[in-house]
Amino acid sequence: MTMGDHELKLLGMWASPFVLRARLALSFKGLSYEYIEEEIFGNKSALLVKSNPVHKKVPVLIHKDKSICESQIIVEYIDEVFSGTGPSLLPADPYERGVARFWAAYIDDKLFSSFMMMIKGKTSEEKAEGRRQSFAVAKTLEGALKRCSKGKSFFGGDNVGFLDIVLGGFVAWVHTRDILSGSKQFDAGKTPLLAAWERFCALDATKAVKPDVEKLVELSKMRQARDDAAAAAVSQSN
Amino acid sequence: MSPSGVKLIGAFGSPFAHRAEVALRLKGVPYELLLEELMISKSDLLLKHNPIHKKVPVLLHGDRTICESLVVLEYIDEAFDGPAIMPTDPYERAMVRFWAHFMDNKCAKPFMLSVWSEGEAQKGFLKEVKENLALLQAQLEGKRFFAGESIGYLDIVLCSLAHWLTVIEEATGVKLVADDEFPDLRRWAKEYTSNEIVKPCLPDRDRLLAFYTAHLDRYKMIAKAMLQQ
């Protein structure tokens, strides 16, 4: 690798599960890159606005001055461009690829929305409903894992693949919720395969990029306090 | 050797099912079309093969099942020989996937709500729709199709702009796009809808208009629910 000359840059934010996906992909492929942190509560940087004018969101991968946005698209891009480097993330077979993409879309649709409801729900009923949904989604993913892993450790089989990385992006959030709620999201009694799948977190390539869960817990509490204060202000002014 | 026997579970008027049909036709893959009557009930076949979402399209290829139109498009491109639907360059592939995602995730809701809502809210959504259309038009870059000289992935994904948009305008009486707006998109829409491969699997315009007119109340309810989310 050339010194200091990064043809790859990643705009990110340390707590974002979507950024984590991109970092996981780069980590598992063994690719080096310049990481540029966006401030959580600050203004969006000029570089972010320039490279993702449509959404102004992280992650953004910048490869030789070309910008690639959307975490799953970034992961596929990395896999295609750097096909000779490190393991392949997407399966080789078109049908297996279709299956992986289907479940990846499901994760971003159903798992993400249930988490958002759980965390951002305006009432305790809504939050409880989010939690219920998250367990139902986990149960469905358990079936997906059984189908995709074919008895092996990961969605990708013996090795980590696209779907492991897509779900893997959420793993720090999941652990954060586990701590805050006092019970496990991927409960070994309800979803044994998913519980075992969390071995993903012990892999070196994951550990290299996974954010500190204690910091995430702190951030979560801080965000919750802000949301509660904002809600209280609204109800007081009425 | 791929398994033979392709069936497509679709429904009249579904732009998502249309996407899958066009792709199969572009590849020259023979298929059996099974039509759902979604407003009445969902067939056992649909529920069996898409238990998660219970939606069309569902592609059955031998004993394989593929759901979600964007996933189906890429599968068709990869599993069958014939002209390429996706670009070959990884960056171009990332770009068309980005705009497909934009269409399905960012455009659908304001589009729905710009025709089916009212008052100040509607004005806001209308503005958003025009911003979205401007962004999409910019991707044409004066080309005949988004993919260049012939139809490709993004042309297929954006099919509802080519055919469904004016029908919905007529059914609801809401003009989203003035006659002098977005000339490049209009030109592209004509090219797309008159294409020999596309034309036979586009829903008949009059029948589509009648369909939307008959189900106005239902769509208004869906839009109302969306607004409250």
TrEMBL record, chain A:
Q: What lineage is on file?
A: Eukaryota, Viridiplantae, Streptophyta, Embryophyta, Tracheophyta
Q: Where is the GST C-terminal domain?
A: 93-228
Catalysis performed (reactions): RX + glutathione = an S-substituted glutathione + a halide anion + H(+)
Q: What are the alphabetically sorted keywords of the record?
A: Transferase
- What is the protein's given name? glutathione transferase
Q: A cellular component term (GO) from this record?
A: cytoplasm
This enzyme's EC code(s): 2.5.1.18
This chain's source organism reads: Eleusine coracana subsp. coracana
* GO process annotations (BP): glutathione metabolic process
* Coiled coil ranges: none
* Record GO terms (molecular function): glutathione transferase activity
The lineage's top-level taxon is Eukaryota
Q: Provide the GST N-terminal domain boundaries.
A: 6-86
The Swiss-Prot or TrEMBL record describes its family as follows: Belongs to the GST superfamily. Tau family.
Entries under PROSITE patterns matching the protein: GST_CTER, GST_NTER
Instruction: Tell me the CDD domains matching this sequence.
Output: GST_C_Tau, GST_N_Tau
The protein's enzyme class: transferase
State which gene encodes it: gb07278
TrEMBL record, chain B:
Q: Where are the transmembrane segments?
A: none
- One Gene Ontology term from the biological process aspect of the record: glutathione metabolic process
What keywords is this UniProt entry annotated with? Answer: Transferase
Q: Which reaction does it catalyse?
A: RX + glutathione = an S-substituted glutathione + a halide anion + H(+)
**Stretches assigned to the GST N-terminal domain:** 4-84
* Positions of the GST C-terminal domain: 89-211
What does UniProt give as the signal peptide span? Answer: none
Molecular function, one GO term = glutathione transferase activity
Its Enzyme Commission number(s) read: 2.5.1.18
Enzyme class comes to transferase
| Annotated Gene3D superfamilies | 1.20.1050.10, Glutaredoxin (3.40.30.10)
GO cellular component terms, alphabetically, are: cytoplasm
Instruction: Give the family this protein belongs to, as stated in its UniProt record.
Output: Belongs to the GST superfamily. Tau family.
Q: What PANTHER family does the record tag this protein with?
A: GLUTATHIONE S-TRANSFERASE, GST, SUPERFAMILY, GST DOMAIN CONTAINING, GLUTATHIONE TRANSFERASE
The entry's protein name is glutathione transferase
Originating species: Eleusine coracana subsp. coracana
